[in-house]
Amino acid sequence: MQVARESRFATALPAIVLALLVANTPAPEGLSGTSMRLLGVFTGVVMGLLTADYDTSVILGVALLALTLTKSFMCRTADGQLVECDKCQTQFVDRHGHSQEYQCDGIGGSFEVAISGFSNKIAWLVFSAFHIGKAVEKTNLGRRISLALVTTMGKSTAGIAYAICVAELALAPFIPSNTARGGGIIYPIVESVIASLGVDRTMGENPVGAYLSMVASNANLISSSLFVTGMAGNPIVASKAASIFGIEFGFAEWFLGASVPMLFLLFIMPHVLHLLLRPKLDVAGLAREIRRQHLVMGSVSFNELKLCATLLLCLALWVGTSYFGIDATVVAYMAIMILILLDVLSWSDVAKNSTAWDTFFWLASFIVLAEQLSALGVTDWIGNSLSGSLHDASPLTSTVTLSLVYFFSMYMFSSISSHVVAFVGPFFAAGHVLNCSPHLLAIIIAVFSSTAGILTPFSTGSVAIYASQGFISQPKWFLLGLIMSLVVLGTTFSVGLVWWKLLGWY
């Protein structure tokens, strides 16, 4: 046991060393010592997410503690000034030449900043959506919807593929974990479909298993790009778009921008993969398996009907935010209370939903880091550095170049959320310096944050689940990922650019 603990700590050493090196590097022009400590801890967090054998929340908790104890945030003084926390209770000379003291508490003020993310509306939106997803899982509504779609559409190869796509699309607004949605609800159905078609996973590669696995994993990522609640990292994109560009990028705006290009991509994706893999399916065997699963589930329960009514209310209020004047987070929070009062969920379900609480903690922590990186000038400094090589390019060329670099940088990450945390802020800051159209860069980065996961078999949990089934080799997955990435880019820079031009976003 002691050896295991020591070995576990050893996995965090690269992150600790990197954090210390960056934090103690002399500050370049435009940054302060406080900025460098924050940047050091942030780079350590990113490295820790890649290498350390600790939960994300533990890594973020340690990071916030380190930043609090070293006073590496921006504090607010008694008279409302913003000042680096390590300057609290030190002397300064005001504009009238009088000696004054910054009236703030360095460590206490730092801790207030560290926990400020837990009051952030975006963190509460995702937290609430996780509990709605729990209700979808608990009532079996998600599984029933998926089975119904496969029953209705599963009379051909294309029909089964589209059933999987529509199932992901139907659940994406309500389940903000693409891994929970793809791995917990959709994957078991896909697995049953593959088994019913007589595919034996022990026999190695198989075109049928490969086709359905690739369709399902791609559908999971594309559906995640359509909604701000479709993937846990999406709210960070929305938050940075608001803070750097000053634009509203909520549920309705996100879906409006992503809808046409991503729905088009979802439509053509099964056909492209069918041309590449050429599977042959036993549709009769599938029909028997689906009938068996329907019999096991039984008829629609009253709880499912109550959940459906609540979800329809949420969608109506989300889409009509400008008309009803109710914030999206309030709608999601209201849904939890309704589901509890209707006995669809119990308070015990909420309390025991560890995934929701865990995501709430690390997402709130990331929001604090992102806000402080901006407040201390780190994001602008990185953005200026990135933009240096594009200073002679047009805003549209800069937008395309930045988004392409952002997309293919996903090769370096094994977590979509880590990729978002590391790069969204700096790339938005670079776009701001280069006068890129705010809405255009924001929506491209938004959809690329999820769809870049197509590149590798280890980009996110749901993709890893499908890739680990053995129906397709790792080298072939990388090849197909590269081909599909070209389809994503082609769709984005053709259909997407036309749609965003019509919207007046550039």
UniProtKB/TrEMBL annotation:
One of its GO terms (cellular component) is membrane. The keyword Transmembrane helix applies. It comes from the Eukaryota. InterPro entries: CitT-rel, SLC13A/DASS. The chain crosses the membrane at residues 40-67, 211-234, 254-277, 298-318, 330-348, 360-383, 403-428, 440-465, 477-500. Keywords: Membrane, Plastid, Plastid inner membrane, Transmembrane, Transmembrane helix. Its main location: plastid. It is a multi-pass membrane protein. One of its GO terms (molecular function) is transmembrane transporter activity. It is found in: Plastid, Chloroplast inner membrane. Pfam families: Na_sulph_symp. Belongs to the SLC13A/DASS transporter (TC 2.A.47) family. DIT1 subfamily. This is Sodium/sulfate symporter. It comes from Linderina pennispora. The lineage of its organism: Eukaryota, Fungi, Fungi incertae sedis, Zoopagomycota, Kickxellomycotina.
